[in-house]
Amino acid sequence: MSLLTHLLACLFGMGSWVSINGLWVELPLIVPQIPEAWYLPSYLSVIIQMANIGPLFVTLMHRFRPGALNETAVIYVIIGLGTVATFLLGFFWKETVVVAGVARSVPLLVLTFFLAAVDCTSSVTFLPFMMRLKSQYLTTYYIGEGVSGLLPSLVALIQGVGLVHCINSTQSVNYTLNIPNGSVTSDLQAQYQPANFSTEVFFFFLSAMMLVCLGAFLLLNYHPSVAREQPNSKYTNGVKQKTKNRELVEQKPMMDPFRPENQKPRSSFGTGSYSWMEVFYIFGILAWVNALSNTVLPSVQSYSCMPYGNNAYHLSASLAALSNPLACFIAMFLPIRSLLFMGALTVIGTGVGVYIMIMAVLSPCPLLVNDTSGGVIIVLAWVLFILTLSYVKVIIGVILRDEGHSALVWCGAVVQLGSLLGAVTMFPLVSVYDYFSSGDPCNTKCS
C-alpha cells in the first residue's frame, strides 16, 4: 500500500466535518460578542439539520437518475464552497443586520448554513468516492474524519477557549441605603480568560484546512501513484461500469469468504451477501450510533462534565475527539466484521451513553461531584463511548464498501438521518423545555 495514498485519504477525510466541528468548539468566544448569545447553539442545530437538503438531493439523484450527477464535480464544488465560507466567516462572523427591529447575526447564520450543507453533503459524496481505491484506504479516510474533530479541539485548547477562573467578588449589602453597619459578603465570580489568538485567526485556520483537503482531493484524482492503488479503472463519475468479471469491481465481503460463486444471492442489496434482515440490522445500528455520537450525547456534554470542573470538561472533549481516530486506527489492523460483535459493542457504547445522560440530567449535582473519582469516571466514560461507537461506524463502512458504490451512498444518507433524528429529539429537551441545568461554575454548592 502507498503511504502517500494513505496520507491523502486521511487529509481528504479531514475536510469532511472540520468546519462545523471548528465552529462548535469556538462558541465560547463567539457567543459573548453576538446578539443571539447562548441561544446560538440552538439556532445552529436547526440550521445544520436544514442543510440536510444537500445529501437528500444527492441521494434522490442517485436513486432516480443514476449516473446523471458528476460525483467528482460535486466534491470540487462543496470543498470550494467550504473554503470560501470559512474564509468569509473570518471577516463577517460578528456583523449584524437589523431584522424586524432586532439585530441578528445574519452573515454568521447564512455562512453556517453553507458550511453545514458542505459537511452534510460530504457524507454522501466522499464515502462513495473512496470506492475508487482499495478497501484498506477507507479506514484511513475514517481516521481523517476523526481528525476533523480532534484538530480543531486541539487548536482551541491552544487558543484557550472557555478557560474560566473564579475570582473573589466583594459585595456591600445595604450600600444604597447608606446604612453604616451594612454587612459585607464575599462571592465567587466566573471570569473567562482572554484567548491567545483571535476568532478571526481560527476561522482562517479552518479555511486553510479546507484548502489542504482540496489539494488532497486533486492528488487523489491525478497523482500516478494513487492511480496504481485503484483496484480497477472502470469508473465514470463515480458510477461503476459493467464488467464481465464482477469480482474485479467489488471485493467479496469477509463475512462469508468461502461462499460458492454459484450460490444464490441472499438479497438484491449489493453483492447479495446479506439477507434483508441483516441489511436492516446494519443500517439500524448505523443510524442509532450516529444519533448518539453526533447529536444526542454531544448536546449534553457540557451538562455531564462541567459540574466536575473545567479540567474534566476539556479533558473529556479532547480525549473523546482523540478516541475517534484511535478507533479507526484499531480497525485498520483489527477489522472484526462479525455482526454479533458489532451489536455487542453497540450495547456497551449505549450503556456508557446512558450513564453520561444520567449525569447530565442530575447536573449541576451529579454523582461523585465532590470527589476526584467522579471527574475521572466521566472522562473515561466519554472516551469509552466514542471509542466503541466509532469502531462500529468504521466496521459498518468497511462492510458496506464491499457491497458497492450504491451501498456507500445509502451509508452516508443513513448517517445523516440518524443525526437528524437525534437533533430533533434533543433540541426541544435542551433548548425549549430547559430540561437540563448547568449551574454556576463557581458558586454551585452540592451537599
Q: Helix proportion of residues, in percent?
A: 55-70%
Count of beta strands? 6
Determine the strand fraction and express it as a percent band: 5-15%
Mean pLDDT: 82
CATH structural fold name of the largest domain: Growth Hormone, Chain: A
In the CATH hierarchy, what is the class of the largest domain? Mainly Alpha
Write the layout of secondary structure elements.
Elements: H1 3-14, H2 18-25, H3 27-30, H4 40-50, H5 53-64, H6 71-92, E1 97-99, E2 102-104, H7 106-122, H8 126-129, H9 136-159, E3 164-172, E4 184-192, H10 199-222, H11 224-227, E5 235-236, E6 239-240, H12 276-296, H13 301-305, H14 310-333, H15 339-362, H16 372-401, H17 405-432
Antiparallel strand pairs: 1-2, 3-4, 5-6
